[in-house]
Specification:
The complex is a heterodimer. Chain A is an alpha/beta fold. Chain A is built from six helices and eleven strands. Chain B is of the alpha+beta class. Classes of the chains: A alpha/beta, B alpha+beta.
Chain lengths: 267, 787
């Protein structure tokens, strides 16, 4: 029997602005995607996975992601995440997942352990948009790294003013390492983590670019894989038209989600 | 509206025809109306009676320079606006140029170009942000998806006597642009920045925006003809109206007075990118429904002149009248006078004209589906009136009829013949002895904030959102994007105008602005397809300033016609534009004549686009465009304290052939990198190619130039030209492309692994600059100027 394509809901909170390219990214990785208006009232259980796109949900009122984290829709999302469905929050979506306690959710209490603080950048204050490198720093397979090797390096763009993962309790880092929850770390092109600007573009603790929950099905990632779906998008790319349209580095994360969903279905 | 209200006569007329001059002057001043006495005295004839206060305010705005183009309109008629590539010329809120036909559908690139100079000088953050906000509405309201912006900026001297204010303005303008565009999610594709003392009291903040639309989906800014048969309503959408920006159009038409700056702040609007984002989403949904159901509508942005200007133009452009009840306008302040409700420039608003049968569905999209009233205080969509078949513009307020004027009189404006008086430019080229150390001069030029890398500005902007980027600002001479996800087609955008050329010669300044914008587009491989002009000048009531304007328009017209569209004699049409006069301080100091040109390029295959960074050791460097003694307005003269007079005077035929041959050369796929020669001259252009946009270049150049010119002229003259990097095995083929067009191309050197910029002139080495030193200067010049 031919299986239907995995179907992803792109959660469109008021003020987000990456929903259309996020939808396209899912489609380019062979999934279906629908933009789910935050107040549509439709159930979430018909979807196989969820994407919280970047932007300025609720105008970043209070703090980036803070209001959406309290949106009634998040309650439903938690239930879906608990079923093991993949949830990826990109940029503002990552901020929402951290504000909601879904990330890192170390002991499954949804305690808010981390924050995404204003960038520390000696060159450009506030919002900063550039291309950086990250490495897959999780040894275990998660929903998001199945298509890449351990410590594989991906070029991705960042575009944020508050992307610095911080926590009051630095011992948590050890726990995250132990749990293999540090999904991506900023590194240079050769794959060396150098915990200073510009390799670490925002001063993030331990050069963290993305965290997952302990189960590895929820991920908060500050860089934008959906803007790196084709090779042409990577600065400095040279090649024919056909080559320029080939899958870009960010697509690996989306293909991994697809693979993860398909494997879950088989079980 | 009950019929007894509709039938009532006008109330509250002002007896302007009986008032003596001094009394009328006083009355106008008390009411902040800047119409002349003659203009006011012409109103009773147009209206058949004395005007109301509301009508006086309406004509005050409509006859302002900003709204009526009263000084400029006649001259602007000489610009070429037609070509087979034009889908919509400069008639509505934006122009539309053909992108191509894909899967049987013709697509257009929507383009608009505006200035927000005065507001940005007074309150730079809000001024720049609302400048972006306004242009996005202009593009969106054509039925388009907004896909890019470009930001030409002109600031004062960051090291001069107003350096603190200049740096504050520059940083706040960049923040304002970034905060608005980033939040709405529109990538920045292009921009340029000049610093000069002539902008100390008047910065220029222009903004260009591009949209994407299928031709069949275009929505026009006028009432559809179906309104003759069917009842049409006027729906106001967006932020609740307040008094912000009341008189903004009139403000834009005044000279900035430092002492009145505090008062003028009231004329600047308040930006709300969050609401704009939601309005765009909801409007996108409205477009979908309208297309599905094939409903005929009109849609217009509310900009200068607010509700009044938008609704009167919606009606008059199609021969209809309007009847609006200002009490139905959702407001956020109580007791606003009718003329403020009608004319304030509150941001984030649009006006629809839709068949009454569709109104409720439209209201539901905004008010329920996208829930405007609950996500942004006071925002909503609401019916404020109807389209009428009588051609009058009628406003009610508190049950009184406060305006009832022939709608064509409201929109037709006034025209003036302004006096022109040529200005002599008497400065001669300075007599500068040949430098002893060229290296020091080159490093100084690279460090100059006008030449230095603009990365510290661009990195505030989201260049990646929407995922269409191919070349970002700084990576190539023009920004390049892939507008359609499944097509090869690429779009390029460049913005240009060198103020110092305009200072020396307003005609050649304009010609060079057009040529450079086209050159930058061609240097990526795209075909210059249309241009827009944002004409920033001084006070048109001064004959010298108006002459500068006239010369600028003549220059644009000549260049757009004579540097004709690729392989044809057709012009590169002007599809959109804006005139910004009164860029003058109270002390009477005007900005340099600044006709800022945006050029839109189209290319069949975006993957063939080329950037500026050198790619391959051992490849050849070719120079297109002979070096001449054209140092007037150069950075070289500037760092020696002069402007000079020998402005570049390109020959149109040569300019055209150079552009065509560069396009053809790049389309072979055999050009590795390409850069135009402009600010700083040949030496700066070579250094920039070696350094690379992010300073990641690791190759050097070894160049050998042989001619009879002084070395300083060869290195620093800003004669237009290109440098191309080509592999040795492809050199013959590229040379053939140029010879086919009869264009001279000179092999001037090679790319080396030595990481040095080495230049020899007539066999003598004149400089050998370690790449690291060049990088240090070029990458830090801007941040040193803006700290």
């Amino acid at each position: 029997m031919l299986m239907s394509k995995p179907k992803i809901a792109i959660l469109q909170f008021p003020g987000v602005n990456c929903e259309y390219e996020s939808k396209l990214a899912c489609e380019q990785a062979g999934m279906e995607a629908e933009i789910y208006r935050w107040n549509s009232g439709e159930p979430l259980d018909t979807y196989d996975g969820f994407l919280l796109p970047g932007g300025w949900s609720y105008e970043d009122r209070v703090r980036a992601g803070a209001i959406a984290a309290k949106d009634p829709l998040l309650e439903q999302l938690r239930e879906q995440a608990a079923l093991g469905k993949p949830v990826i929050g990109i940029c503002n979506g990552a901020q929402i997942l951290v504000e909601s306690g879904l990330i890192p959710n170390i002991d499954n209490t949804l305690r808010v352990d981390f924050a995404l603080a204003p960038n520390i950048n000696p060159r450009v204050s506030g919002y900063y948009c550039t291309w950086i490198h990250v490495m897959n720093s999780s040894k275990k397979q998660t929903a998001f790294n199945r298509t890449m090797k351990y410590e594989e390096v991906l070029p991705l763009p960042i575009a944020h003013g508050e992307g610095r993962f911080v926590t009051r309790n630095k011992e948590l880092i050890d726990t995250l390492i132990k749990n293999d929850q540090i999904a991506f770390r900023y590194c240079n092109e050769e794959g060396n983590v150098i915990n200073e600007f510009p390799v670490n573009p925002n001063g993030s603790l331990y050069s963290i670019a993305a965290l997952t929950n302990p189960e590895g099905n929820v991920m908060a990632i500050m860089p934008h894989p959906e803007r790196a779906m084709e090779k042409r998008q990577v600065p400095g790319f040279q090649g024919s038209y056909e080559e320029s349209r080939q899958h870009g580095p960010g697509s690996k994360i989306f293909f991994s989600m697809k693979e993860y969903i398909e494997e879950r279905r088989k079980k | 509206m009950s019929s007894d209200i509709e039938n009532q006569t006008i109330s509250g007329t002002i007896p302007v025809s009986d008032m003596p001059d001094d009394e009328l002057s006083r009355f106008l001043k008390e009411n902040s109306i800047s119409l002349t006495l003659e203009e006011v005295r012409s109103l009773p004839e147009k209206l058949g009676r004395n005007p109301t206060l509301t009508e006086l305010h309406i004509f005050n705005i409509q006859w302002s320079e900003h709204s009526s183009y009263k000084s400029s309109k006649k001259l602007l008629k000489q610009l070429p606006t037609e070509s087979p590539k034009v889908i919509l010329g400069p008639k509505e809120d934006s122009g539309i140029v053909e992108l191509g036909t894909f899967k049987g559908k013709r697509y257009g690139i929507v383009v608009s170009h505006e200035s927000h100079n005065h507001p940005s000088q007074v309150v730079p953050y809000e001024g720049a942000a609302t400048g972006v906000g306004g242009i996005l509405r202009d593009v969106l309201c054509m039925g388009a998806e907004v896909i890019a912006t470009g930001d030409p900026l002109r600031f004062g001297d960051p090291f001069g006597k107003n350096k603190d204010r200049t740096r504050y303005i520059a940083n706040a303008v960049v923040d304002g642009i970034a905060s608005y565009g980033n939040a709405v999610g529109i990538p920045v594709l292009a921009g340029d920045v000049y610093f000069d003392a002539c902008f100390d009291d008047n910065c220029l903040v222009n903004v260009v925006s591009l949209g994407l639309v299928k031709e069949e989906d275009i929505i026009h800014s006028y009432v559809p003809k179906e309104a003759a048969e069917e009842e049409y309503e006027v729906v106001l959408v967006g932020k609740a109206t307040d008094n912000s920006g009341f008189g903004g159009a009139a403000f834009a038409s005044l000279i900035l007075d430092e002492e009145e700056a505090e008062i003028n702040k009231g004329a600047v609007q308040v930006p709300d990118p969050f609401l704009k984002n939601m309005l765009i989403k909801a409007t996108r949904r409205a477009f979908e429904v309208i297309r599905e159901k094939k409903i005929k509508v009109g849609f217009k942005d509310l900009g200068a002149g607010g509700i009044m200007c938008a609704t009167s133009e919606l009606g008059s452009a199609a021969g209809f009248g309007m009847e609006l009840d200002l009490d139905k306008v959702h407001v956020s302040m109580h007791n606003l006078p009718p003329y403020v409700i009608a004319c304030s420039e509150t941001q984030e608003r649009f006006a629809w004209v839709v068949p009454k049968s569709f109104t409720q569905e439209l209201l539901k999209i905004y008010n329920e589906d996208y829930d405007l009233p609950n996500i942004a205080e006071g925002a909503k969509a609401t019916v404020i009136g109807k389209v009428t078949r009588e051609k009058n513009y009628v406003l009610f307020h508190n049950g009184q009829k406060v305006c009832d004027a022939p709608i064509d009189e409201v929109t037709s404006g006034v025209l003036y013949d302004r006096e022109q008086k040529p200005m002599e430019w008497n400065e001669k080229d300075p007599d500068i002895p040949e430098p002893v150390h060229y290296k020091e001069i080159i490093l100084k030029i690279l460090r100059h904030p006008t030449v230095a890398s603009k990365a510290d500005i661009y990195k505030h902007y989201d260049t990646e959102v929407q995922g269409r980027a191919v070349f970002r600002p700084g990576e190539a001479d023009a920004g390049v994007m892939a507008p359609l996800p499944d097509e090869k087609v690429g779009v390029a955008l460049s913005v240009d105008s060198n103020p110092k050329y305009g200072r020396i010669s307003p005609y050649w300044g304009a010609v060079n602005a057009v040529f450079e914008a086209m050159r930058n587009v061609a240097a990526t491989g795209a075909v210059p397809t249309a241009i827009t002009d944002c004409l920033n000048y001084g006070n048109p009531e001064k004959p010298e300033a108006f002459w500068q304007f006239a010369e600028g328009v003549r220059g644009i017209s000549d260049a757009a016609r004579k540097i004709s569209y690729y392989n044809t004699d057709l012009p590169v049409p002007v599809v959109s534009g804006n005139v910004s006069f009164y860029n003058e301080s109270a002390a009477g100091k005007a900005v340099d004549p600044s006709p800022v040109i945006a050029c839109i390029g189209v290319m069949d295959d975006f993957s063939k686009a080329r950037g500026i960074q050198l790619l391959r050791e051992g490849s050849y460097l070719f120079l297109v465009g002979e070096r001449k003694h054209e140092l007037g307005g150069s950075i070289y003269y500037e760092i020696h304290g002069g402007t000079g007079s020998s402005v570049p005077k390109p020959d149109f035929e040569t300019a055209k052939k150079q552009i065509w041959s560069v396009i053809d050369a790049i389309s072979t796929g055999k050009v590795l990198a390409s850069h135009d020669i402009s600010d700083g001259g040949l030496a700066a252009a070579l250094a920039e190619m070696a350094i690379g946009p992010e300073g990641k270049g690791n190759l050097g150049v070894e160049v050998q130039l042989n001619d009879d010119l002084p070395t300083s002229t060869v290195l620093f003259s800003e004669s237009p030209g290109f440098i191309l990097e080509v592999s040795p095995e492809d050199a013959r083929e590229i040379e053939k492309v140029f010879s086919r067009h009869g264009v001279d191309v000179f092999k001037i050197g090679e790319v080396t692994s030595s990481q040095k910029i080495t230049i020899k002139h007539n066999e003598k080495e004149v400089c050998s600059i370690p790449l690291e030193e060049a990088k240090e200067a070029w990458l830090n010049g801007l941040s040193e100027a803006l700290k």
